[in-house]
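Bench log. Compound arrived from synthesis this morning; before running ITC I wanted a structural hypothesis for how adenosine-5'-diphosphate sits in the protein. Inputs:
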Amino acid sequence: MTQQRMQFQAEVSRLLDIVVHSLYSEKEIFLRELISNASDACDKLRYEALTQPELVGADGDFKIKISVDKNARTLTISDNGIGMDRDELIENLGTIARSGTSTFLEKLGESKKPDINFIGQFGVGFYSAFMVAQTVEVTSRKAGHDEAFCWTSDGKGEFSVEEDDKSSRGTDVTIYLKQGEDEFLDIERLRFIINRYSDHIALPIILEGSDQPVNQASALWMRPKNEIKLDQYQEFYHHVAHAFDEQALTIHWKAEGKIEYAGLLFVPGMKPLDLFDPKRQHGVKLYVKRVFITDHADGLVPPYLRFLRGVIDSEDLPLNVSREMLQHNPMLAKIRQGITRRVLGDLNKFAEQLDAYAKFWENFGIVLKEGLYEDTDNRPDLLKLLRSRSSQCDALVSLEDYVGRMKEGQDAIFYITGENADKLAHNPHLEGFKERGVEVLLLTDAVDDFWPTAVGEYHGKVFKSVTRAGQDLGKIKSTNDAETKTDKADETQAGDLDSLIALMKLELGETVKDVRPSERLTSSPVCLVADDGDIDIHLERFLKQHNQIRTPSKRILELNPKHLLIRKMAARAKASGAVDGLKNIAWLLFDQARLMDGETLSDPMAFGEKLNEVLAKVV
Ligand code: ADP
């Protein structure tokens, strides 16, 4: 077969453009990316060889070799890993399979200085070679195959593939350096770069002219903690997570006893792009006795900890465990319990660093909350980690803070759910709570509609949505008694309100479940609340948006007896009965309450007409 020329996928061309022109300030990291790929290729073959030892044969010492040719001005990174056949060369080096790539690139292209932290997650790895290369040649022979192929490109839209006579297994990546990049021909410079970025690689990296590996060539997670420097952890994090940011937390431990494993896990400093992917896959690699098994061991990490990146290396799992059978291995469930407990414990300690934890919570709180209803065993620990905005302070509050501040007579943890904490803080439902100095948690994640009912209580205090009836605020003392007394004088006489309530019930009919006086309102005239057994208002809206609910439940309309408008209406109702003006206002108030909850008007035309009639009378 002769040489075949092909076009890069459009996304690859764009990515190449971005990588070459604007991305990295430190060009030298291309070497780390290529070494990282070589190491992955060896890991993959080692795994395949567990069941097919003939793939490795006599060449069982996995290593990475780096050589230079000063005359040709080339640098070559060689591995004896799994290699690629013709189709894989085309597929792996000519396309990007990850979903969402093109929308992502569009966004990146718009910004002047694209964020390297994001682009790293898209696996630019190999393409970073073009920062220093005029031409890149990838010669590869796949394990178990007789033929080899050579892929060549100058990174400008096209690449070519042809047969090659490479006799050994694995891949050679040869970089023809651009003018001015001669530093990468200097062995000492290369040694420095490898030490800096690739020391954690568990395979020997051999520089031309020496038999001794440049790196320690032992798995970082197996080394004692006190021998590992911070930047070694950071480099390893970049390697396993395909990330460029700084990890928020490093968790490194060895479990000894009945089950033995080493864990080196990282909480990323920023949200991974696939955090909300419906598959909810985690990013922790599973090794068995230093042999890489899989990136996606189902059941190794609970889905609500899927933001974790890193490695678990088990001493107990059988080496010949197939990826498919893993899930049913009881050992795996034990390791998951161990990981979960360790991570939740370390997060709890981390929470003492208020600012760093607030950042963590902003990134991953929403995911962690999924655990509140999925993982009943660890619920107490998850509740300890929970943070929320509140009606009383700007900083995030914990449930412990909240309970410590509860008022005399208060027996519940009050919360309200919605999209935006600032808007929630001004919701009429909170008025009575504010007046009594009762704190309300402002919950703004979609999961917040579910976990409080599933969890039920914290230290004996039930979670109660303020949009429910029967809050019995009367039991809680108001912060300012004197004020309440003067208010009492202004309050509508009970008998007066009865006529108004009767009139409104009759007029609104089946639209509402009931009309009642309110204890929760102080400045708004009305609000809608859910009856005790009924579905929460915000949850209902969420389910409606997801087509889970057709007929909405009826709500209770609460009237504020202290409000001037209600007082006037009550007096009018008592004196003259159901006059038309009052009927119109009843509907307008009902609609107003809906609007306050972020609902839309059910009949905007009718609303307009009624409003106009009422306004016409006062002009
Ligand atoms: P990533 O490593 O994030 O997947 P890269 O662009 O670095 O992205 O590499 C693309 C793919 O090319 C890899 O996933 C791998 O399948 C293949 N590849 C790259 N280098 C090698 C190598 N040295 N040996 C075998 N396969 C490789």
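What the model suggests: The chain has four domains: 4-216, 225-353, 386-485, 488-619. The CA atoms of residues 286 and 294 lie 5 Å apart.
ITC booked for Thursday regardless.
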